[in-house]
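Subject: Sanity check before I submit

Could someone independently write out the structure tokens for this chain? I want to compare against mine line by line before I put it in a report. The sequence has 219 residues.
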Amino acid sequence: MKLLKDNGLTIVLVLLSIATIGGMMLTGWTVYNHELAEHGAAQIGLSAYATSGHFLSSLFENWESEFLQMSAYVMLTAFLFQRGSAESKDPDGPSVVDEDPSAKADDIDAPWPVRAGGWARSVYSYSLGIALASLFVLTLVLHLRYSAEAENAQAMIHGQPTTSMWDHTRSAQFWFESLQNWQSEFLSTAVIVVLSIFLRFKGSPESKPVAAPHIQTGD
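---
Independent answer below. Compare away.
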């Protein structure tokens, strides 16, 4: 029970991710086989679909936009402010997240990179942004690869010539797939930043206390 209490948020989110990926795979498989049947092509099994460009392109396209949103959010909130938002540091005062980690070098409870100092501390100081940005780049490349594969599969069905992954980077299709997700991520982030000024959700760390004044900035 302690394991569930301490890790319940992660467990539920992982289970929801697995369930929705499974649903996406099953529905996508149905859509893709229907499309193949319309063009007189042989249908494929679920395992083959799971490794196809049609499925993996869509999967990594969405992951790419999420990691872009999170990495941009982590980095932008380090130096940009929105007065009154629960998602922003106070623009008028110091924040605990801005404290110099070298002051904790002798703290035995501090993470080892903080105690080690030097390059380890410097990298660790920005490790969250580095990790999220790296995941964005990785999923962007995977989206590109499987988007090109999906595009070539469509070209073969229609008897058209295929293109390389490099050529696909210059295609309107690839950038349409990416930008249609990127814009929604930036918009949704802006919405929660602004709404958290005026609205509350009791018990959530993403919300200010219910009785807090609108002008109070979260930190």
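---
OP: Matches mine. For the report I'm noting this point. The helical segments are 2-38, 46-50, 53-76, 112-116, 118-125, 127-157, 165-168, 172-198.
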